[in-house]
């Protein structure tokens, strides 16, 4: 079946650098996308969302880009900090369901 | 304000035993979800409750799994005759959205270990 997936399972980034986490989705009917952050031992925490009628949305230090032509979603984190170390999931929303990818583990090097 | 809470935080059980996992959603949220997260994996949808409507049970992996939601609030996920492959983190989420796209608020999860 159709699902959301991430390009890379791990990402190591130097503190202060920008991070880019990628996600490919396959369901063109998806109308809403969310990025979640999950720290060890905790549940996923909402970071930012974007609707399918948008191609970019900015939050505090984070930007989500949506390219519907190639079914690609990315999360950019500016000036990555040690507290950004976590697993990041993209999820696509069809109706009331969220379909999650496997996640990218981001490790911030001091 | 209070977020989604789950109990217990950890549960160790022996193969063949039944377990009950509890979820207290955010007050006023009409939608409640259960997910399963195996080690290093994404979240697998299990079941969805919306108000008084019949739940969407399409994600339950076997008939050993069941869930109920009493009074439109607290939910219990029951796993009967547990197997080792049931070991995972079980996450509950609630949402104020009534059937449309929207943010889901997650609890901390219950880590289930079946020996």
Provide a descriptive summary of the structure in words.
The complex is a heterodimer of chains A (110) and B (115). Chain A is an all-beta fold and 110 residues long. Chain A has strands spanning 4-6, 10-14, 19-25, 32-38, 45-51, 56-58, 62-67, 72-77, 86-94, 97-100, 104-109. With 115 residues, chain B is mainly β. Chain B is built from no helices and 10 strands. In chain B, the strands form 2 sheets. In chain B, strands 2, 4, 5, 8, 9 and 10 form a 6-stranded mixed β-sheet that branches. Chain B has a 4-stranded antiparallel β-sheet with strand order 1-3-7-6, with no helix packed on it. The radius of gyration of chain B is 13 Å and the shape is globular. The relative contact order of chain B is 0.33. The model of chain B has no long low-confidence stretch (mean pLDDT 92). The A-B interface holds A 31-32, 34, 36, 41-46, 49, 51, 89, 91, 93, 95-103 and B 4, 31, 33, 35, 40-43, 45, 48, 50, 56, 91, 93, 97, 99-109.
What's this entry about, in short?
The complex is a heterodimer of chains A (110) and B (115). By secondary structure, chain A is an all-beta fold.
The oligomeric state of the chains shown is heterodimer
* SSE sequence of chain B, one letter per element: EEEEEEEEEE
| Contiguous runs where pLDDT drops below 50 for at least 5 residues of chain B | none
Separation of termini of chain B? 37 Å
Poorly predicted spans of chain A: none
The 3D shape of chain A can be described as globular
β-strand percent of chain A reads over 45%
Q: What is the averaged pLDDT score of chain B? A: 92
Write the layout of secondary structure elements.
The complex is a heterodimer of chains A (110) and B (115).
Chain A: E1 4-6, E2 10-14, E3 19-25, E4 32-38, E5 45-51, E6 56-58, E7 62-67, E8 72-77, E9 86-94, E10 97-100, E11 104-109
Parallel strand pairs in A: 2-11
Antiparallel strand pairs in A: 1-3, 3-8, 4-5, 4-9, 6-7, 7-8, 9-10, 9-11
Chain B: E1 5-7, E2 10-13, E3 19-24, E4 31-37, E5 43-50, E6 65-69, E7 75-79, E8 88-95, E9 105-106, E10 110-114
Parallel strand pairs in B: 2-10
Antiparallel strand pairs in B: 1-3, 3-7, 4-5, 4-8, 6-7, 8-9, 8-10
